From TrEMBL:
Its EC number is 2.3.1.39. Keywords: Acyltransferase, Transferase. It comes from Methylobacterium persicinum. The keyword Acyltransferase applies. It is an enzyme of class 2 (transferase). This is [acyl-carrier-protein] S-malonyltransferase. InterPro entries: Ac_transferase_dom_sf, Acyl_transferase_dom, Acyl_Trfase/lysoPLipase, Mal-CoA-ACP_Trans/PKS_FabD, Malonyl_transacylase_ACP-bd. GO terms for molecular function: [acyl-carrier-protein] S-malonyltransferase activity. Residues 6-298 form the Malonyl-CoA:ACP transacylase (MAT) domain. The keyword Transcription regulation does not apply.
Length: 307
């Protein structure tokens, strides 16, 4: 049996995002490591306030805190054979869960990653979600409107990036070509598109200076969030970690890789349940849950122990 651990990207932050981990002794070090990066504010207090949770820098830090705090609790249950993959900023958190970076390094890099993206992103850009048509139909529309494919979630589900004034007509065009849904997203950063090439370059240099650790034998197998490939050589994996800021993510390939590694259970760590929903469609024979769906940490641990 294999447990696939999926780490959320931004968008699902909410006031109760640390409800299951806030008081767990295993997670205290993660919360303390985040405090200096948040102006001295405890991430639990910041989340509970409900204010400013979706700013790029704050959001990326909080998503990594949620993933690392969740794993610190899950690890107590000794889940055995596991693989880990992260969506967007979750890809960085995966390096912490896989034992490659310590928590302080992950959180520091999350802040730096967001700063690099903000510096590279101009005004008037964003993302849109399009579902219900395949890439052979969508790709010519993307090119026609001068946009870029950002994420492939499934064979008929995509995120595209570009100028705001191009995304609206692209969505209209997609609907006219049979899309079930096509809407601009409340995001101002054209993540995972060539528009952020400068951010990839800057982040690559920061990653080269970060201290790497040898993962313990019990650490989950790390899958690249860019293409689902297993990370065996840290240098190649770090290059992908930097490149994914400005290259299309193939999340569908990450879910396929989880299936290839024999995932019988899937657990999403982080705010929300978007990845769990996608995993249910991609891995119909697996038992899928999001941490947010449990009422207590003990309930999660019991689910893991029961296999």
């Amino acid at each position: 049996m294999t447990l696939a651990i999926l780490l959320s990207g931004q968008g699902g932050q909410h006031p109760a995002m640390f409800a299951l981990t806030a008081d767990r002794p295993e997670a205290q070090g993660v919360f303390e490591a985040a405090r200096p990066l948040l102006g001295g504010t405890d991430p639990r207090d910041l989340a509970a306030s409900g204010e400013g949770l979706h700013g790029n820098r704050t959001g990326q830090i909080l998503c990594c805190v949620a993933a690392l705090a969740g794993w610190s609790v899950i690890a107590v249950g000794k889940p055995g054979r596991a693989v880990v993959a992260g969506y967007s900023i979750g890809d960085l958190a995966a390096w912490g869960i896989a034992g490659r970076f310590d928590a302080a390094t992950v959180l520091r890099l999350a802040a730096a990653r967001a700063e690099a993206m903000d510096a590279a992103s101009g005004e008037g850009f964003g993302l849109a979600g399009i579902r219900g048509i395949g890439l052979p139909v969508l790709d010519p529309l993307i090119r026609r409107h001068g946009c870029h494919l950002a994420i492939r979630n499934a064979a008929d589900s995509f995120v595209v990036g570009g100028r705001r004034d191009a995304l609206d007509p692209l969505c209209e065009d997609a609907l006219a070509h049979g899309a079930q849904r096509a809407v601009p997203l409340p995001v101002e950063t054209p993540s995972h598109t060539p528009l952020l090439a400068e951010a990839s370059t800057r982040f690559r240099a920061l990653l080269a200076e970060a201290e790497l650790h040898r993962p313990p034998p019990s650490a989950p197998r790390l899958l690249s969030g860019l293409d689902g490939a297993a990370v065996f050589q840290p240098e190649a994996g770090l290059d992908k970690l930097a490149a994914q800021i400005s290259r299309t993510l193939d999340w569908a390939a990450c879910l396929d890789a989880c299936g290839e590694y024999g995932a019988t259970r899937v657990l999403e760590l982080g705010p929300g349940h978007a990845l769990a929903t996608m995993a249910q469609a991609s891995l119909p024979d697996a038992r899928v849950h999001a941490l947010d769906a449990f009422r207590s940490a003990d309930g999660v641990l019991d689910w893991i122990r029961r296999g």
